[in-house]
Design goal:
alpha+beta, Beta-galactosidase, Chain A, domain 5, nine-stranded antiparallel beta sheet, about 20% strand, globular, binds beta-D-glucopyranose
């Protein structure tokens, strides 16, 4: 069992000791965020001991800089600019000098050093006892949290108890040395494309401007973004001397044996904004926020934070009896998922949340296909904000479609922050046009689960229409295939197979996208017969024709669903001769070497089947699962959860369980060996999906909620809640029975394994 779990409780992860490698590894895991700001779990004195840190960054959702992409060989329509999230001034830094000595974990004598992440409360604590060379002791305890109630605020409390009289204690706080931002980060010359940082990451002096009252205005070089950072330090103890410079607060005390000194610090990060002229206003607002929190006091702000966290858990927890390690792993994933989501309709969820700079902070299809279901069924208002973000970038998506020579409709960027395509490698980037249908799928599910017609008939429908339009022009009716609608030259979810014709997943999702648009246009026409939505009858007829005639590749001889037209014509990858250290393949083989083989990075056809279980017979699903499992490396963290859920569907209980354990503990056990760059947020969403949509078999069909529970025999009981059409339902599953309770809302009929049940 992993040490963090072993030492923890069902709600806490505990790290004990001072091993730099362990502390470094936990820097990602101990990250705290609230969807607006996120700060990695680094030590307060990391600037003195960089060997304990991979990157101590604090990140703001949506704060990025751009830089032109330089191509060795350019072609029309390539993405033009990198977008790279850049760390903002880090407010965790603290330096402590006691009895003439400066504390750091390498040279100081620290005992009982430990850190605990309390998932229930959303608080990271650290404590140790420090003995100076003169033998004088100081007990130290530090708390940190990022508030959900005040999204701008990161709060810290320092509790220092000297054991002797009359020693001088100096505690200094600083916004991280701004000009060296990024410099202290591990700068290995690492070609790994999953982490590569492209745009300039540093602020320069004229990007930083101090105003009165510790207010720092920061701006990016090229992307035109601004934010303000403020800082307040408060103590009720007798301060011998306090020196406050703009960037630094230094407090000195004289020790009294066993008399505790408490210092609170609030660091405030404004919203990000685009017009410099707003700065004064933003500063005023931030000063007000800082005043509010300092007047309320640390205890009260903390109590509010804990109560917000508790109400989150009240609705979103998954309780699992009989497996303490899994319980903790599961909660850890839900905790980070919750932390990652932008909540303002202008930002989204990056592949790493706000826990690291991997993938440059970009938003991918990960959001809609992996993270979204958790929010949809537990906090639908956040699900709506995530969709509103997509709506906010619809103009850029239309523009992108024009660049791709598509006259009507929209193509969402494969990876982006500001809505523009940021993938410089189009075979595994822009070619993944399935993102359009992924977004449409999330929109449609949102409508089914929430009944929010106001959204669906307006913003939702507009996106369904624009994405549907795109398909009609990208694909065509192919006479050589009896007039079937084909979609050529795309890349499906599996990034080890690129630029193919008729990727099954893409075609099926496009078919659904068309069906969703048709259904909602017709609904709107019924509800608002006098209002035109700018879709002609001819256009609708064409969509219906494409939807009906969508080509879905199938191999009749093999009785297998084909991942795409050419997949079975390729040679199967020689797995036996591939040494372990050559995985992930993407770091060890040229893309073409990979593409010409039958080898999958992740679930593709199997994912399509998981999403539309009823479209396939059990035998078909089993045949396809068996086939594709053999050629899948799971080099992508998005793979295992899907294979696990399908294993459960086809009755492969042992496999389902094993895949699920890997999924649930992926980051804690660093299964992909790159957790240092940030958590795998999509996989965390996959964990929730595995439990609720996998083992409990939740799905919605024609507006009705279905369950097909299969609780593994290893578990005593699983309890979770879901929201569905203004109801709150609690589900308790054991290996032998399942109980459904209506906690809130009107009577509801659900279907369990084909049988109606009224709650
Ligand atoms: C996966 C993609 C995913 C991206 C970001 C890649 O490794 O293949 O499916 O969107 O990571 O998580």
């Amino acid at each position: 069992m992993h040490e963090l779990i072993e030492k923890g409780t069902p709600w806490t992860l505990k790290e004990v000791g001072t091993d730099p490698e362990v502390i470094k590894q936990n820097e990602t895991l101990f990250s705290l965020s609230n969807g607006h700001i996120g700060t990695r779990g680094s030590l307060e004195e990391t600037h003195l001991t960089p060997e304990f840190s991979h990157s101590k960054s604090t990140l703001m959702n949506g704060f990025f800089d751009t830089e032109p992409i330089t191509y060795g060989e350019w072609a029309y329509g390539y993405a033009t600019h990198h977008q790279t999230t850049i760390p903002i001034p880090d407010g965790k830094k603290m330096e402590m000098k006691y009895d003439g000595e400066v504390f750091d974990l390498t040279s100081s004598d620290a005992k009982d050093h430990n850190r605990t992440l309390d998932l229930k409360k959303g608080i990271l604590t650290r404590s140790y006892s420090w003995k100076t060379e003169n033998g004088h002791e100081l007990e130290v305890s530090i708390e940190r949290f990022v508030s959900y109630d005040y999204p701008e605020i990161m709060a810290q409390r320092f509790i220092l108890t000297p054991k002797d009289d009359n020693n001088s204690l100096e505690v200094s706080f600083e916004l991280d040395d701004l000009k060296s931002m990024g410099k202290e980060r591990d700068k290995e010359d690492d070609p790994d494309p999953r982490k590569k940082e492209q745009a300039s990451r540093r602020f320069e002096s004229d990007d930083l401007e101090f105003y009165d009252a510790d207010m720092l205005h920061i701006k990016t070089h090229a992307s035109g973004l601004h934010a303000v950072v403020g800082n307040r330090v408060v103590t009720d103890n007798d301060v011998h001397q306090q020196i406050s410079d703009k960037n630094r607060d230094s407090l000195s005390f004289y020790s009294k044996a066993n008399q505790t000194i408490v210092i609170d610090r609030f660091v405030a990060y404004s919203e990000l904004y685009k017009e410099e002229s707003l700065t004064e206003n933003i500063i005023d607002n931030l000063i007000r926020t800082l005043k509010n929190v300092t007047e309320s006091g640390y205890e009260k702000v903390k109590a509010e934070h804990i109560s917000t966290m508790e109400s989150f858990w009240e609705h979103s927890d998954i309780q699992i009896d009989g497996e303490p390690a899994l319980q903790l792993g599961l909660r850890f994933n839900l905790f980070h998922l919750h932390q990652a989501a932008g909540r303002d309709g202008k930002t989204n969820m990056s592949a790493k949340g706000l826990t690291g700079e991997g993938y440059e902070g970009h938003y991918f299809w990960d959001t809609e296909m992996y993270m979204f279901p958790f929010f949809l069924y537990t906090q639908p208002e956040i699900a709506r904000s995530l969709l509103m973000y997509r709506y906010s970038i619809l103009p850029q998506a239309k523009e992108r479609a024009r660049t791709m020579a598509i006259a009507n409709g929209a193509l969402f960027a494969w990876r982006t922050i500001n809505g523009e395509e940021a993938s410089p490698y189009y075979p595994a980037g822009t070619a993944q046009i399935h993102i359009n249908a992924d977004i449409a799928h999330a929109i449609y599910s949102y409508g089914e689960v929430t009944g929010d017609d106001a959204f669906m008939l307006n913003e939702g429908l507009e996106m369904l229409v624009e994405t549907a339009r795109f398909w009609l022009e990208w694909g065509h009716f192919d006479d050589n295939r009896g007039g079937a609608f084909v979609i050529n030259d795309v890349t499906g979810p599996d990034e080890y197979t690129a630029i193919v014709n008729n990727n099954y997943y893409t075609n099926l999702m496009a078919k659904k996208n068309l069906a969703y648009a048709i259904e909602w246009i017709e609904k709107r026409r019924r509800q608002l017969p006098d209002e035109d939505f700018n879709v002609s009858q001819d256009e609708l007829t064409e969509w219906k024709k494409a939807e009906e005639h969508m080509y879905l590749p199938y191999d009749e001889d093999k009785q297998l669903t084909m991942q795409d037209d050419s997949f079975f014509h390729k040679k199967v990858w020689d797995f036996e001769q591939t040494p372990k250290e050559n995985y992930p393949l993407l770091l060890n083989y040229h893309p073409l070497t990979i593409y010409k083989h039958q080898v999958c990075k992740q679930a593709d056809t199997v994912l399509a089947q998981f999403l539309f279980l009823d479209d396939f017979s059990k035998e078909q699903k089993k045949r396809d699962f068996d086939y594709y499992e053999k050629v899948t490396t799971h080099d992508s963290s998005l793979s295992r959860s899907v294979f696990g859920m399908m294993a459960s569907q086809i009755g492969e209980e042992k496999k389902a369980y094993d895949y699920f354990m890997d999924t649930a503990l992926m980051d804690i056990s660093d299964l992909q060996s790159n957790t240092k760059d940030g958590v795998h947020a999509a996989n965390m969403g996959g964990t929730w999906m595995s439990m609720v949509q996998g083992f409990a078999g939740l799905r919605v069909d024609k507006g009705t909620l279905h369950f097909s529970p299969q609780c593994p025999s290893e578990w005593e009981r699983i309890v979770f809640k879901v929201r569905f059409q203004k109801r709150l339902i609690q589900v308790s599953m054991t290996p032998s029975s399942t109980d459904y309770q209506l906690v809130e809302g009107d009577q509801l009929t659900i279907i369990e394994n084909g049988e109606k049940k009224t709650l």
